[in-house]
Amino acid sequence: MTNLSMEATPLLQTTELSSKIISVYELLMDSSLDIPQYQRPYKWTGKNINQLFSDIAIHKDKSAYRLGTIVFHQDGETKNVVDGQQRTISLLLAVRALIQRNKEKKLERKDLRERLLKLEQAMVNPGFTSEISQKNIHSNYLEVARIVSRADFTEAHIDYFLNKCQVVAVALNDVSEAFQFFDSQNARGRDLEPHDLLKAYHLREFSPRDEQLKAATVAHWENSDTDALATLFSQYLYRIRNWSKGVSARYFSKDDSDLFKGVNIDTVAGYPYMEQLRIAHHFVDNYNGQYERKIDSRELGFPFHLDQIIINGRRFFELISHYQSKVARISAESWNGHELVGAEALDGYAKTIMGTLNSYPARTRTGDCYVRAMFDCLLIYYIDKFGHADISRAIEKIFIWAYSLRLKMQVVQLASMDNHVLENNLFRLIKEATRPADFINCTLAALSGTKSTKTVEIEALFKAMKYYE
Q1: How far apart are CA 254 and CA 197, in angstroms?
Q2: Are 463 and 446 in contact (CB under 8 A)?
Q3: DSSP state of 42
Q4: Largest CA distance in the chain
Q5: Residue 15 pLDDT more than 80?
Q6: Do 155 and 109 touch, CB atoms closer than 8 A?
Q7: Quick one: which of 148, 192, 203, 271 has the most CB atoms within 10 Å?
Q8: pTM recorded for the entire structure
């Protein structure tokens, strides 16, 4: 659930705008609310509902928890929801489920019983003609009813949900201004990129003792090229994390942002799997904070891995910075191996492979770019795990695996790339490997077939390496 931190002061200097922070109870007690028919269908799923209540449970010890912003168009006595309808409908469903719970078994707290009774009398009951909305409303009501009926969802949780969970309510009198405001809140008229949402999420996850680092963290992120960040996530981090789990990775969207949300070191329970993360987290900080570092000027970096559990907050931004530089070095078109392995030049066919991939005329075709993306992702994943051990042999193996798709298909599309990875998943092989030989010794099939005038350089390498008949 997106949590936007905004102040309760006017957001635009206009007499037609009002902005205030209100509780969920106050929001839903407003009988003038309406969901206009022009709004898109209600598309939240059970996953969104569970995430909402999971977030609330995590933050229940705070004095208040901000759920986001609701933008209204004030049309006479009616408040049309312009932005925040998904969240508003979900809150309505949650309160409906709480009302039903109270009917089935009376709550002990009189104040909560009275509030739910008032809500039942005042809450709007909008109608929906969209079959998509109707289906999702039905299934999500059942999901939220299961959540609020559990024994661990106590009356204290109900109190927190109704009275301490808040939204920023923004009302404008002019509908065009309302939509303009909505657009301005969504990254200057465009949809927020997934990495923008992740930035907001992980800034909220900063530990109180790291607060002084927030300004520098934001500055570094803002100084990064947004297109480069989008590419880092969509073409490398997202694909590698999904492919290493055997999951499709075609389009990185906001729905996939949970892939880069993990655990908060300060608030997560002491599960056994957390021990190694907690030890590494605190040891690195302790080492870098010792007075000896002022003498030897050494700095220990956190031991990040591409498929690790994400540590929320500061470590997330460090992880992204770490892979910004690593991916840039490994995927650079001019790379010939010397920059990474120092004096140890590539041997065997590896040097020829890199030179060919960076120079053959057809390399900029769309299909060839997809194949190169597979090659780069698997090479990055290998180096992330094994460093430069047997790097030349690894490059040879990765080349045959990736570019066999180029030779087998006249037209390579995004789906072709994704299917090739999942059907011949060497990412899983690297994930499970304990030494380079576990990967390098895997067998790959030789190819045969019609020659293409656009891939003669690739075919020549396959033939020289005895992988083309």
Answers
A1: 8
A2: no
A3: P
A4: 82
A5: no
A6: yes
A7: 148
A8: 0.67
